[in-house]
Amino acid sequence: MGSKLNKKQLEIILSQLKELSLPKPSLEQYAITSSLAAEVLNLAYLHGDIKDKVVFDFGCGSGRLGIGAVMLGAKFVVGIDIDKSAIRTAKENLESYEARISKKLPVYFVVCDIGNWFSKAETVVQNPPFGIQTRHADRLFLESALRCGKRIYSLHKNGYKKTREFIKKFIEDRKGKIEKTLKYKFSIPHMFKFHKKPKATYNVDLYIIER
Predict the structure, then answer these.
(1) Strand arrangement, sheet containing 107-111
(2) pTM of the model
(3) Which residues does residue 157 pair with via DSSP β-bridges, in sequence order?
(4) What average pLDDT does the structure give for the chain?
(5) For residue 108, what are the domain limits?
(6) How many domains in the chain?
(7) In whole angstroms, what is the distance from residue 90 CA to residue 44 CA?
């Protein structure tokens, strides 16, 4: 089923999923755009890290990455988020897509702090907090991904050279290796009172990591 979807078809389907109705600024619940989600998932698929694999989506939010992974043929997907309302939305999105294709899919959404998650997967995909509202929040995600996954696709705000060097050392200290770093744009609409522009666009790095 999933392998028949090309990147554009995947992007269109993902764009139809519901966003979080009341995102929490403290959790930096900025949804990954459907185009960037499709890009990351397609890349992971082409690397052989989606089809027939067990995939975790850490900080899954509305479930875009996790549901997209099963569309591309993942064997089993678990989306984990600390926020109950996010998990509710993710389940609604899954049920809506299942109803559309008249098929039950091997995707499960779980309320859990990823720091307390110890199961293993072949692949982890994640769009962690940038660490702006809660300092170093992104480190917890990286640490958890390196503990649980063999291959990791992780998006991080593009920082200075010093930031990249820190992330590299952080990963290597935990027996990980950065295979590739790719640059993308991440768009955030006006969501919270402290946002001053209708839309902000950030440079982000996608780290492809092997452990």
Answers:
(1) 107-111, 76-81, 54-58, 121-126, 149-157, 199-210, 177-189
(2) 0.90
(3) 204
(4) 89
(5) 32-210
(6) 1
(7) 21
